[in-house]
């Protein structure tokens, strides 16, 4: 096999990971791998959103910095190139939970920063000419069954209690259906401060922006060990990267590293995608505003209308793998993907004969308490950001800015946010971890099934809910 054939093969393999990578418009041939040891100011593990945003803001602040990113595959290979395309202004952890840990004012500051982050991503896309299709479209969370109505009202009341009532609206069924006609919609929660992007075009565009600013990205370079110290080191089979500071930005993949195996739980989120729909289907569905769309299912779902007129439907359901195992084969799970196709047709009955063209997935990083963390320990030289639990498109930008401030030794409003310096508990050792996570996964699915049958919302007091409270 010659070099050209090998490059084409690699491009094809990477493009097949998701519709987004397939349609990002980039040549996905890997950048040159690390070739021998290097000395830099900052070495970053991972060329996903967190690593790229951190490098971007560091270099914008101090162009003379020597910044190198080491990536096991290619920029945007992981969740950054496979997600639902939402720029979310929330986290999975609730404001109530943040307030219990850090107080009301800190929780409010975090939420304001998340709102601002949506605009910041749009600003950078414009300034750097990143054609990521960014648009601030808002989000609709639809209550489709009676059991979801009290869950929706409680969710809205939480934002009211923290002073963000002006950032949301409860829509009656008629108004919700005017925006998008979902079968069984009873009401919806609307927030205008959400955005939509083409995820892989954002990641790949950020990578080019980092390189324009002088950063170096070494792809197909696996980090096998992290050595803390006065000059910490990222070790690879192809050489070491020594630096003043190292940033661990591998999200779910950090679970593969010694010493971090229980820091985040790799949870698989899977996605299906329809063919481009005709005018008749869109006339029946509506959805002209292209809002981010979800429901109040306990098990999580999320929908996106793509630029070329497809419907993306994503959700949880793929089983957790023993010992936090991650493998390319787990990106596709036939049972879960078929469930997502059924749900798509259930939401939109006019799609009963629609063809699905793509199915993919990948792991996201979930900390034990659902709270993301951003940290920098000067003694060890190790910085990290992780644990977005599926909200990383927005949260990674916020984390990257906070990391840049920490590494520059600056105290700013971002370094005062509760995610900075937060320490999540470690996940339980195996087999307790496997037993507990599988139990919660099955219990959440049963809660939705029983809610649809009985109309009763979850009590909040079951063992599964207590184990996963956030």
CATH architecture assignment name of the domain at 139-191 and 265-366 and 430-467: 2-Layer Sandwich
Globally, the shape reads: globular
Helix content: 25-40%
CATH topology of the domain at 139-191 and 265-366 and 430-467: D-Amino Acid Oxidase, Chain A, domain 2
Estimate the mean pLDDT confidence: 95
CATH 4th-level superfamily of the domain at 139-191 and 265-366 and 430-467: D-Amino Acid Oxidase, subunit A, domain 2
Counted beta strands: 19
Unreliable parts: none
Can you offer a commentary on this structure?
With 470 residues, this protein is α/β, with parallel strands linked by helices. 34% of the residues lie in helices and 21% in strands. It has helices at 3-15, 19-22, 49-61, 95-102, 104-127, 148-161, 173-179, 199-212, 279-285, 334-347, 392-407, 432-454, 463-467; strands at residues 38-45, 67-70, 86-87, 135-136, 139-143, 169-172, 187-191, 195-196, 216-218, 225-227, 233-236, 239-248, 265-274, 292-295, 301-305, 311-315, 356-366, 373-377, 382-386. Strand 18 and strand 19 (382-386) form a beta hairpin. The chain is globular and about 60 Å long.
Task: Give a brief rundown of this model.
The protein is built from 13 helices and 19 strands. It has 470 residues and is an alpha/beta fold.
Blueprint of the fold:
Blueprint: H1 3-15, H2 19-22, E1 38-45, H3 49-61, E2 67-70, E3 86-87, H4 95-102, H5 104-127, E4 135-136, E5 139-143, H6 148-161, E6 169-172, H7 173-179, E7 187-191, E8 195-196, H8 199-212, E9 216-218, E10 225-227, E11 233-236, E12 239-248, E13 265-274, H9 279-285, E14 292-295, E15 301-305, E16 311-315, H10 334-347, E17 356-366, E18 373-377, E19 382-386, H11 392-407, H12 432-454, H13 463-467
Parallel strand pairs: 1-2, 1-12, 2-9, 5-14, 12-19
Antiparallel strand pairs: 3-8, 4-8, 5-7, 6-7, 10-11, 11-12, 13-16, 13-17, 15-16, 18-19
Helix pairs in contact: 3-8, 3-11, 4-5, 5-11
């Amino acid at each position: 096999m010659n070099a050209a054939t090998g490059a084409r093969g690699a491009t094809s393999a990477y493009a097949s990971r998701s519709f987004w990578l397939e349609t990002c418009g980039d040549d996905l041939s890997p950048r040159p791998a690390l070739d021998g040891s290097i000395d830099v100011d900052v070495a970053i593990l991972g060329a996903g959103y967190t690593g790229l945003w951190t490098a971007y803001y560091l270099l914008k602040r101090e162009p003379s910095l020597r910044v190198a990113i080491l990536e096991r595959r290619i920029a945007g290979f992981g969740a950054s190139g496979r997600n639902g395309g939402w720029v979310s202004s929330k986290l999975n952890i609730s404001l109530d939970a943040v307030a219990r840990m850090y107080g009301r004012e800190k929780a409010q500051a975090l939420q304001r920063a998340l709102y601002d982050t949506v605009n910041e991503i749009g600003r950078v896309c414009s300034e750097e000419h990143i054609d990521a299709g960014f648009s601030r479209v808002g989000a609709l969370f639809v209550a489709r069954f009676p059991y979801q109505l009290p869950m929706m009202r409680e969710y809205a009341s939480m934002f009211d209690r923290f002073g963000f009532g002006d950032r949301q609206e409860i829509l009656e069924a008629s108004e919700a259906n005017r925006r998008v006609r979902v079968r069984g919609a009873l009401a919806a929660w609307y927030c205008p401060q959400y955005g939509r992007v083409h995820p892989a075009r954002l990641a790949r565009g950020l990578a080019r922006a980092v390189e324009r600013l002088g950063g170096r990205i070494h792809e197909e370079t696996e980090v096998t060990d992290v050595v803390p110290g006065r000059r910490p080191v990222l070790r690879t089979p192809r050489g070491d990267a020594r630096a003043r500071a190292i940033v661990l930005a591998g999200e779910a993949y950090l679970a593969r590293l010694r010493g971090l195996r229980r820091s985040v739980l790799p949870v698989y989120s899977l996605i299906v995608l329809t063919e481009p729909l005709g005018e008749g289907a869109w006339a029946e569905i509506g959805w002209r505003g292209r809002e981010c769309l979800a429901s109040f299912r306990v098990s999580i779902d999320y929908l996106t209308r793509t630029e070329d007129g497809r419907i993306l439907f994503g959700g949880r359901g793929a089983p957790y793998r023993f010992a936090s195992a991650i493998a390319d084969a787990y990106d596709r799970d036939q049972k879960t993907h078929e469930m997502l196709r059924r749900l798509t047709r259930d939401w939109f009955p006019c799609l009963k004969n629609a063809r699905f063209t793509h199915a993919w997935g990948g792991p996201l990083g979930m900390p034990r308490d659902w709270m993301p963390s951003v940290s920098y320990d000067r003694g060890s030289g190790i910085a990290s950001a992780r644990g977005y639990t599926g909200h990383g498109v927005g949260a990674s930008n916020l984390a990257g800015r906070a990391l840049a401030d920490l590494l520059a030794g600056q105290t700013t409003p971002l370094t005062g946010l509760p995610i900075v310096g937060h320490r999540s508990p470690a996940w339980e050792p195996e087999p307790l971890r496997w037993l507990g996570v599988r139990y919660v996964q099955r219990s959440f699915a049963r809660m939705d099934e029983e809610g649809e049958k009985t109309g009763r919302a979850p009590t909040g007091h079951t063992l599964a809910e207590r184990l996963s409270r956030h």
